[in-house]
Amino acid sequence: MSVSRKRRGFTLIELVIVVLVLGIIAAVAAPKLFDVTTSARESGTRQSLTTIRNAIELYRATTGNYPPFATFTTALKSSLQGGTFPSPQVGAKSGANTIRQFSGTFSATGGSGWAYNPTTGEFFIDDPDYATW
Asked: pTM of the predicted model, to two decimals?
């Protein structure tokens, strides 16, 4: 009388194949996951830019003038959610909450986070890659 035993479990080859398939899936999915971070930063900065531009127009509608450069952030504080002035999350000065004043036609220098023209109310990201937003 022979006793036959059924083997339960996976062989080494089966495990290696599963690990290889998972590695291929991870290699394909990883770049897409990392690109989500860049996209989220760009979307957040676009939203901040729109919010600040709307606050500038609200200030102008209320007072009849654009906010002066000397008191720009404090003049808009009440119009911004949370009362804090956002910083850009893209560009060379990502995270820098600095604003430079410009006049005439805007030209990005990359030297600050934002750029503001108190004469026309124009507000931009001070970075050549994002200056057209």
From this structure: 0.72
